[in-house]
Amino acid sequence: MPSHPPAEPRILVVRFSSMGDIILTTPLLRALRRRYPSAEITALTKRSFAPLLSDHPGLDRLIAWEPGRPLRDLAAELRGYRFSHILDLHGTLRARILRLLVPGNWTGYGKRRVAREILIRTKRNLYRDTVPEPERYFEAARELDVHPDGGPPDFFLSAAAEERGHGWLHAAGLGEQRPLVALVPGAAHATKRWPVESWIELARQLTADGFDAAVLGGPDYAPECAAIAEAGGRHAVSAAGAFGLQETGAVLRRARVSVSGDTGVMHMASATRTPIVALLGPTVGTFGFLPYQAKAIILERSLPCRPCSSQGGPACPLGHHRCLRDIPPQEVAAAVRRMAAA
Length: 342
Description:
alpha/beta, Rossmann fold, six-stranded parallel beta sheet, five-stranded parallel beta sheet, 13 helices, 35% helix, globular
């Protein structure tokens, strides 16, 4: 480890996916920019996730890789920048191939894979630390003398995205006379999804309690979002499939509380400083992915089968999905009320 890092390093931060993981890199980006105001800082991610970083003021350059573009072409572009430090925050096969194609000062971080797999398979907790994932990323920057500042993640939005998100809320009549809650029922993996019937009952309870509800999700989850919004009557509207990542962030920023599973939107809510009610099922906080430096209430059930996965899966391995089914809508509604009052 050099005793004196370069005054103006040229830094590349590599994280291809996914939504939450990319958002959780931003405390490190913030620390790098504060430590090195004149540094050249570049981020590399997938094009589909580029809006998460496209307006970040701490970046000099954002390279958006389109899957299908040959890695050799990408590597040739990266070699041209002559980075002094390349921080691998992904550690996948793709990143390892890039290490071969782009020689340089690559550094990574410990993913605690062995401890994670032992916890999943045997339920024995052999983690030696409780460091959150955003702070683990700092291990990759160990040569650069940066440290977490205790602040939450960042999500910088364009003025156009703010206008579109706020315009949709105004047109829908949400959040103007009543506090707004964002309901996020979807998740990439089925075992991370709270049952739709529970979301429907939650929407009924919250709108009856005086909340407006914006139901957020992708186009693949539009029918479920529509059913949830219908249960909330005129005080709930579905935005499923209507927004990109930045517009979703703009709506979250206007919400008094967000409710979601352990998903990327949960971390987006942390980055927009929106209080969170999070429903944890197959995953556990020991993995390091709880809402980071956020106002949050975590609802979960202590079951001998948890955790069963690090990212969720297509179906409960035991067939009962009690980890989420056993969380009643009444408990979630009460948590929303407590968070909104705070």
